[in-house]
Amino acid sequence: MPRPGRNSYGEQKPPYSYISLTAMAIQSSPEKMLTLADIYKFIMDRFSFYRKNTKRWQNSLRHNLSFNDCFVKIARRPDRPGKGSYWALHPNSGTMFENGSFLRRRKRYKSQNGKTTEEDGKKTIQQMSMLPDMPVDLFWQQHFAASVQHFLPPRPTLTHPILFQQNTPKQPAKKSFTIDEILSNDNFIQQGGAPTMQNYAFFGQQFWPPFARPPPPPPPAHYPVLVRPFPVKLTPQTPTTQENGTSSGNDQAIDESINQLL
DNA sequence: TCCTAAATCAAAG
DNA sequence: CTTTGATTTAGGA
Fold first, then answer.
1. Which nucleotide's C1' is closest to A73 (Cα)?
2. Is pTM, for the whole model, over 0.90?
3. Distance (Å, whole) CA A147 – CA A17
4. For A251, phi and psi rounded to 5 degrees?
5. Is the domain defined by A18-96 classed in CATH 1.10.10.10?
C-alpha cells in the first residue's frame, strides 16, 4: 500500500495554473490586491509542492503577472511605503475560469485596447461616478468579492488540492454584482460641481504629489458628480428615482455606464 | 491531430 | 521588481 512520502500525493503539482493560483491569492486578500511577495507566500503556505524549486516557478509567476492582461499593477499609496507594487485583477477578467478548469482557460483574457493599466481601473471607476468616493482597493473588493468567490480554496490549509467545482456552486459572475448597492441613493449625497482635489487623492500617484498637482479632469458632461464626503458618516438623502418608475437623468446615466461594463 | 494557453529560460531595464 | 522575447510543453476539443 502506498504511503505518504516525499513523492506522496501532497507533493504533487496542484492542478492549478500560475494564473489561477495568483487569482486565488489576490482574491483571498481583504483588499483584493497583493504584492509579489504576498502572492509567493499565499502559494507556499498552502501547497508544499511550491516550497521547492522556488527560483523556477517564481520566475514563471512573475512572467505571468506582467504578461497577462488579467493582472493589473496598482501603485502604492505614499502612506503605505514598501517594496514592489500591488497586483489586482482586471475588472473584466472575472469570468476567466468559468469553464471550471483552473489548468487552462478557454481563452486568455485580453483587454480591449491591448494595454491594461491602472488607468483602466480609474477610468472604470470614473465612469461610474465613483471616483471621488472610495479607495481603489475597496473598489476592487466590491467588484470582485462575489464574482470570483468560487476561486477560493475551501480551506486555508490544504495538504492536497481539491477541485472546486465539486463542492462549490457555480454562479454567474453578474449575479452577485453589487454595483447597484454601491450606487444606491442611500449611499450618496449629491453635490454640484466637480470633485475636489482631496477627493481625487485616493487614486494613485498621478494626483498624489502635493506639488505640481495637475488639475483633476472635468467629469463627463452627461454624468452627474456624486460625492460622498469621506470619511463622514452617511445620511440618507432624498431619492432621485421618481415615483412613476422612470429613472431620473441621474440614474439613467449611471445605468448606461454600468451596462457598458457588464 | 491541431490550436494555442501555459510554463520555462533568461536577457534587459 | 518588471517587462519582454524566444522556445518548449501540454490541455483539451
1. C2
2. no
3. 19
4. -65, -35
5. yes
DSSP A34: B
Q: Rounded to 5 degrees, what are φ and ψ at A151?
A: -80, -15
Query: Residue A41 pLDDT > 70, yes or no?
Result: yes
Asked whether residue A109 carries a pLDDT value surpassing 90, the answer given is no
Most confident of A82-86, A142-146, A211-215, A229-233: A82-86
The whole-number Å distance from A210's CA to C13's C1' is 56
Which residues numbered 73-132 in chain A sit less than 7 A from strand C, measured from CB? 73, 83-85, 99, 101, 103-104
Residue A248 · residue A254 · CB < 8 Å: no
Alpha helices (H) in chain A, listed in sequence order: 18-28, 36-46, 54-67, 118-127, 136-144, 164-167, 179-183, 197-200, 249-261
Residue closest to C4, CA→C1'? A67
The residue written with cell numbers 486555508 in the block is A156
Question: Do residues A129 and A184 touch, judged by C-beta distance below 8 A?
Answer: no
Cα-to-chain-centroid distance, residue A253: 23
Q: Which helix (H) or strand (E) segment is A17 a member of?
A: none
Pairwise CA distance, residues A191 & A115, whole Å: 34
The letter for the amino acid at A220 is P
Q: pLDDT per residue over A151-164, tens digit each?
A: 333 322 222 222 22
The length of chain A, given as a count of residues: 262
Contact at 8 Å (CB) between A223 and A126?
Answer: no
A102 touches A16 (CB < 8 A): yes
